[in-house]
Design goal:
single chain, mainly alpha, 3-stranded antiparallel beta sheet, globular, 8 helices, 3 strands, Arc Repressor Mutant, subunit A
């Protein structure tokens, strides 16, 4: 009977890639829970309010574990915090651009780490640089726009990979 009671409890949504990118399972659990609640509350502009007790009930993270998780996320500029009201309440918001950058960096480094040893088997060859077309007009403005487009496209792909809701992705576009 106890087993059935446990299974009827609310599971949480957890993104292992976030934990890996942050270097902390507890920070990954905390950020995953904030992501879950983002857009579900009455607070606008992505801010949510959760007490330490609520977070404990939802994630089983102790007060100290929550504080350490927040510290890690703040250090990477992924988590924004503000205090408002009387009595003061602590509100949280995810910086999706920074989260995307951290995930993208993790994916790139992880990909490089997996392929790092394969270069040992290649012969040492020098490659001639590709010739540039005489007709291509490559201005700094076009290059910058292209880089921003590719970066945003990669961030959206990273968000989809970890399962961020389509509503949040649409707001980011």
């Amino acid at each position: 009977m106890l087993f059935i009671k446990i299974l009827q409890d609310r599971p949480i949504r957890y993104y292992p890639d976030i934990a890996k990118a942050l270097g902390s399972v507890k920070a990954g659990v905390f950020i995953s829970q904030i992501l879950y609640w983002t857009g579900k509350g009455k607070i606008k502009e992505g801010w949510i309010y959760k007490t330490q007790n609520e977070m404990y009930e939802e994630t089983a993270l102790s007060r100290r574990e929550q504080e350490n998780a927040r510290k890690i996320a703040r250090k990477l500029s992924i988590l924004e915090e503000k205090k408002e009201g009387i009595p003061q309440r602590l509100y949280f918001r995810i910086n999706f651009e920074k989260l995307g950058e951290v995930l993208l960096s993790y994916y790139q480094n992880n990909k490089n780490a997996q392929n790092r040893h394969t270069c040992l088997f290649r012969k040492n060859k020098q490659y001639a640089p590709k010739e540039h077309s005489l007709y291509s007009k490559n201005t700094q403005e076009n290059t910058q726009k292209n880089k921003l487009y590719l970066k945003k496209k990669a961030l959206l792909k990273a968000f989809k990979k970890i399962g961020v809701s389509q509503n949040i992705i649409d707001n980011y576009k």
